[in-house]
Structures are given as structure tokens and as C-alpha cells.
Amino acid sequence: MPVIAVTHPLVRHKIGLLREAAISNKQFRELTHELACLLTCEATADLPMQAATIACWSGPVQIEQLAGRKITVMPILRAGLGMLEGVLGLIPTAQVSVIGLARNHATLQPECYCEKLVDHLDERIALIIDPMLATAGSMIAAIDVLKAQGCTDVRALVLVAAPEGIAALEAAHPDVRCWAAAIDSRLDEVGYIIPGLGDAGDKIFGTV
Ligand code: PRP
Ligand code: URA
To answer: Does ligand 2 have an atom closer than 6 angstroms to the CB of 137?
Structure first.
């Protein structure tokens, strides 16, 4: 099941707060940040570990460390930037690959206006972050870019997913797991998620 609904009580509570129509930009940013932290824990729960011995105050002690591939975080501009600090707060050594995608309001197709990727993507785990999975056109385009660079472990973190987007993502990239803080009812006639959050980018950047 590529899309995994995260059911932690803190996630369910914070998503509810995020849906308030009268929410301020400040509150929306803060909750987006907190939810990004919680989703990061879920999406990294299976990272491989390795043993190491360190000098503890009481003498040598065996500890566990993260092992294996390095991580790149890929925010989908703009709205994905609202989740970036939350992810980097927990994975401070991750490197950041940026992709700018804007949905064409008439066609709902994503149009790429910026792409700056880190190197050696074939050796990295990628965490794509974007608050909204609506038609999934933007997410699929971002995954296409990562896979074209040889990335074989792609994971996605979203706040709200629509069933239409989930079906499209599963069809296009069945190997990619996506953690969602909420799975909503449907898309409206102009491609907005119902009940959803409204325009996440506008709420994070204050452009409405
Ligand atoms: C929003 C959102 C996703 C995309 C989701 O971005 O942040 O990137 O739409 O829609 P989709 O699943 O149908 O592709 P938008 O294009 O509005 O740009 P913004 O982040 O700059 O506001
Ligand atoms: N992008 C948003 O910001 N919100 C939606 O509901 C759909 C796409």
C-alpha cells in the first residue's frame, strides 16, 4: 500500500487545527512544521542501523547508529518549503534537492520552473515533501526526476491526500511509499481537495 495514513493522535489533532478557515499564516506554518516532524519519524522508522563502540563516561559502550544510504530531502516549491525545517530538524545532515512545480490552473498539469538536485542521487534515500497530494501530478513529476537520476528509494510525506491522487500515484509509482497525515474525500471541479486545507502555498507564504 504505497499511501500510508498516519493515525498518531498528535497528527490527527494537528490536522484538525490546520483545517480552520480563519487560521493565521503563523499558525498554519507552525502546524505544518510540527506535522512535518511527526511524518518524518514515521517515514524513517525502517532506516537501517549499525552497531558502534564509543567511549562513554563509564567506559566503552556499544551504541546504535544510523547506517546505510545518506538522505536527500526534496521540497516541492513553494509549499513544500513549509515542511523543510521540520524534516531537517530531525535529520540535520540531509542534503536538499529543490524542485519548483506550479500547477497550471487550467490544465492542472505541473509546470517545472526550477530544478537543483544534489549529486549521487543513486546512492541516496529521497524524502519528497509537499503538503498537498491532489491529482498527484506534481508528486509524480518530482518522482520522475529523482528516478531519472537513479534514485531507487523514494519516499513522500504529505499532509493531505485525495483518493484521486492516491490512485494516480499508485499507478505511476507503485514502489514509492507516501505517508499522509490525512486522506480526504475527493477533489472539487477545480482540483482542490475537499475538505482539504485550501491553498497550502498561499497560507504558508501569506499570498492571500
Ligand atoms: C500545490 C501543492 C502541490 C500541488 C498539488 O502547489 O503544494 O505541489 O499543488 O497538486 P497536484 O497533486 O494536483 O499536482 P501549487 O502548484 O499550487 O504551487 P505553490 O506551492 O507554489 O502554491
Ligand atoms: N494545492 C493546494 O494547495 N490545495 C489543494 O487543495 C490542491 C492543490
So the answer is: no
Which of the 8 DSSP states describes residue 151? Answer: -
Ligand 2 near 30 CB (within 6 A): no
Q: Please work out whether the CB of residue 134 comes within 6 Å of at least one atom of ligand 2.
A: yes
Question: pLDDT digits over 42-75, tens only?
Answer: 999 999 999 999 999 999 999 999 997 899 999 9
pLDDT of 174 higher than 80: yes
Instruction: Tell me the three state secondary structure of residue 206.
Output: coil
pLDDT in tens, 67-113: 978 999 999 999 999 999 999 999 999 999 999 999 998 999 999 99
Report the topology of domain 3-44+70-205: Rossmann fold (3.40.50)
Instruction: Indicate if the pLDDT at residue 208 is higher than 80.
Output: no
Kindly give the distance from the C-alpha atom of residue 103 to the centroid of ligand 1, in angstroms, as a whole number.
Answer: 6
What residue segments make up the domains of the chain, in order of their start? 3-44+70-205
Spatial CA neighbour of 120 closest among 77, 69, 74: 69
Please tell me the residue having the least CA distance from ligand 2 atom 4: 199
If you measure from the C-alpha of residue 69 to the centroid of ligand 1, how many angstroms do you get, rounded to a whole number? 29
What's the CA gap between 112 and 145, in Å, rounded?
Answer: 11
